[in-house]
Design a protein that fits this description.
With about 90 residues, the protein is mainly β. It has 1 helix and 6 strands. A hairpin with a 4-residue loop joins strand 3 and strand 4.
Length: about 90
């Protein structure tokens, strides 16, 4: 198990940023992070993630009071071994 450090910052009421330090080589971490479909295995409230195409991803999560939340996201920027940025879609 890796040791991780998490840092969170609220940028605006509707814009949230989170960063994490993971003790692993960047190639491995980036490849895992690109596999959105596996997020339910390690993200507690995420129940499913389906890639619709190269840039569109459909997320389903369990919200407060067991409310089902569905959200589409669009990948807006990718830099290999550096970052993946996405925003809400539709």
């Amino acid at each position: 198990m890796c040791k991780c450090g998490v840092r969170r910052k609220l940028l605006r009421k509707d814009n949230y940023e989170e960063s994490m330090v993971i003790n692993q080589d960047i190639d491995t971490v980036y490849e895992i992070w690109r596999e959105f479909e596996k997020f339910p295995k390690f993200m507690k409230n995420v129940t499913s993630v389906v890639r619709k195409n190269n840039n569109l991803i459909q997320w389903v999560a369990e919200g407060p009071f067991d409310i089902k939340i569905e959200r589409g996201t669009k990948i807006v920027e990718q830099e290999e071994n550096s970052k993946i940025s996405w925003s809400s879609a539709g």
